[in-house]
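#struct-help
A.M.: can someone run this one for me? Single chain, 337 residues.
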Amino acid sequence: MTELMDRNLVLELVRVTEAAALAAARLMGRRDRDAADQAAVDAMRYTLNSLDIDGTVVIGEGEKNQAPMLYIGERVGTGSPPAVDVAVDPIDGVTLLANGRPGALSVVAVAERHTLFFTHLAYIDKIVVGPNAKGAININAPVRENLRRVAEAENREVDDLTVVMLDRPRHERLIKEVREAGARIKLISEGDVAPGIMAAMEEDTGIDLLMGTGGSPEAVLMACALKCLGGDMQCRLWPRDERERQILVDEGHDLDRVFTVDDLCKGQNVFVAVTGITDGELLRGVRYTGGYARTTSLMMRSISGSVRWMEAKHDLRRLREIAGPRYEGVKHKKAHS
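D.P.: on it. Structure tokens below:
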């Protein structure tokens, strides 16, 4: 993908996540998941279609018949090279946003065409670690063994480690095994992309591993981030019932296969942009000050290994002149109706 290698596309992608965050943040705490999601999708689609890419959404909000969400197979961009796969999550943690809780963010990743993994299955079991523990994990090994090996790679003790996972009944056994091994546990209610990124960072983020089952789209987005950060992940497909098992068989998947970062994201030139919507441990949320808004974003590029944090100030009046009410959620939609 020589055209893409000559452009740092992440500096353009961050406009996409900023737009989604600005549109969705106005609905913080209003307990309207659908309105928040739609506001983020509208702004994200509008901005994606302004980029000079020939993009196909591989990880999106659902199938084509679920439009107007950003659907799987949707073409985005102006249609000019480079040809890329696009993974989107307009709001990771939409319930967090709807309830005014921390940790909601917007994510977009781009990689070479035909390099991102896709399945109709909803869930994947995974372990995510940082660069120091790369090669130390084995998802088929006991939890205690994985924690021992990660601690050894990090030159620490198991009881120094903090494991983050979604607070779900399906994780009761995993929680018990982590506790018995002696590691600390951080349970989250929703939104595991940010903790996955934090587990993979070399900086002291307070999270050492992410474990447990979560959404397959989120797993692919994490794999894209891990390509940039140098962390490691192993995954297994996790069908919840016989119907999902049959879907995987029909798709040609080996249910015993262990997936790696390179299986979920085969691309070598990968770009990831993340913008905070509500305040979280990874990023600050959107701040409004009169006619302006401030956003905080994280940008990553795999080929160079560069990671950038960016704070931006947005003139909302000028944005409305360019894009109409998309950046303002419901507030200015009413004013302009």
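A.M.: thanks! The two ends are 44 Å apart (CA to CA).
D.P.: also worth noting: Confidence is low (pLDDT under 50) at residues 330-337.
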